[in-house]
Amino acid sequence: MNIRKFALTAFIILGVLDIVYGLLMDDRISLFMGPILILIAVYLIARERKQTAGKQ
User: Fold this and answer.
1) Which pLDDT belongs to residue 51?
2) pTM
3) Which of 28, 48, 52 is nearest to 40 (CA)?
């Protein structure tokens, strides 16, 4: 696993933890930002896979 995939996986984990924190502490900003972090990471992973598939 290269560092880029590790970083994107870390962003997904941070997004999930942000959502959990938002639920426990009733923090609306965390409830808003958690899914955004996850969506950005998933988008970047999908884009990277598409680029890798196009090179083969």
Assistant:
1) 87
2) 0.85
3) 48
